[in-house]
DNA sequence: TAGTAGTGAGACAGACCTGTCTCACCACAA
DNA sequence: TTGTGGTGAGACAGGTCTGTCTCACTACTA
């Protein structure tokens, strides 16, 4: 009823499908994966159950789709940030700053990928793989930036450390200590980069 | 049947109760909190459902008890390590090493407190509070160690950073990269401490 | 012997879970 | 007009969830 397809959208690209993904994302973020039932998703998305099951093979398939969609958006945003390119240190600091702004959002509720790992943490599981992909992509992005400042091996170690700082900061932000976490992460990242460069 | 109370145990201290907590811990760790049903816990603990509900008010009560029990064990182990006291830098390195050994255990499956936060992440929730308590306790412990090397304010920042490294490393270990994570965490912690001491 | 505390076994209630199915409806195209 | 594809509504199956309840049993103590 409230979801008329506007003329410029091809129904094939399915606004319903996207709407289901967005609603599921919000609920998974707020309530968790197991705690969110299909019935709740279709009620809040205002679609019939069959509409959901025509677009996704199962709840797990929907979860994977939600994670992949969030991964695409995450990459887009970091790509956009990288396009306003600066010096390497500034770029790492910008990434940390991006996390700091995320932590301050009213709808922040921790990292969906980390939560997915907590609830579906078996290697080989598609949900597990989707989460690993996102973390590894961020780490590689940072290693690429740091390689301009230090050796490749040093950049690997430093990017791993900074990824850990970011993941730890996200956990602290979940516990209401995001500001303190970001300050410490910024300083620690700068110490790590300075030490890596010195070698 | 297989759970005869041996004479030296007072039945009041309830070996059943402890056995339920241990079984629940194993299942929560392996499967997650929502994914583990009461029926599964009592079946594997080989106790009647009423035995469980006489000892714990609800599943949530059991979860809190499991977390508190793990917290006590965690503190005990770090206390024991601290008793073999060394220089401050060595103590931080020992804590990181302790995590490294944990990552290598066959039954390692991520941090139960972080997982609990992912599944019951609303401030004020007793599960949330139990998780925050564990993280904050570790951070304060490290801040105390670092205060011997630098100013109190510096020690606060550095302990926050090292806690984040540890939490991030735990996440990476869940993704099968524990060894790499521990190496990077060790080096980063040493860089952070060196920088904090220099100020 | 009688009483008591803890327990086992399992039925039960009432809710919720995922996933399937049918049937009616509507917009649009040939 | 007659199809066709997407959808809505909701029944349904078969299972699982938490939590309560009863009744019988055992070990121990007074």
Q: Assembly state here?
A: homodimer
CATH architect. name of the largest domain in chain A: Orthogonal Bundle
Helix amount of chain A: over 70%
Pattern of helices and strands of chain A: HHHHHHHHH
Distance between the termini of chain A: 64 Å
Largest pleated sheet of chain A: none
What's the number of extended β-strand segments of chain A? 0
Give me the secondary-structure category of chain A. mainly alpha
What shape does the CA trace of chain A take? elongated
Give the mean pLDDT of chain A: 91
What is the beta-strand fraction of chain A?
under 5%
* CATH class type of the largest domain in chain A: Mainly Alpha
Structurally, the number of domains of chain A stands at 2
Structure annotation, total helices of chain A: 9
Pair of chains with the largest interface and how many residues each contributes: A-B, 43 and 44 residues
From the alpha-carbon coordinates, what is the Rg of chain A to the nearest angstrom? Answer: 19 Å
Task: Considering the chains and any ligands shown, give keywords for the structure.
199 residues; mainly alpha; Arc Repressor Mutant, subunit A; Tetracycline Repressor, domain 2; 74% helix; elongated; DNA-binding
Please tell me about this protein's structure.
The structure is a homodimer of 199-residue chains. By secondary structure, chain A is mostly helical. The first copy, chain A, has two domains: 1-56, Homeodomain-like (Arc Repressor Mutant, subunit A), CATH 1.10.10.60; 60-198, Tetracycline Repressor, domain 2, CATH 1.10.357. The first copy, chain A, contains nine helices and no strands. In chain A, helix 1 crosses helix 2, helix 5 runs antiparallel to helix 9 and helix 7 (126-146) crosses helix 8. The longest helix of chain A has 25 residues, at 59-83. In chain A, 41% of the residues are buried. Residues 1-13 of chain A have low confidence and may be disordered. Chains A and B meet through helix 6, helix 7, helix 8 and helix 9 of A and helix 6, helix 7, helix 8 and helix 9 of B.
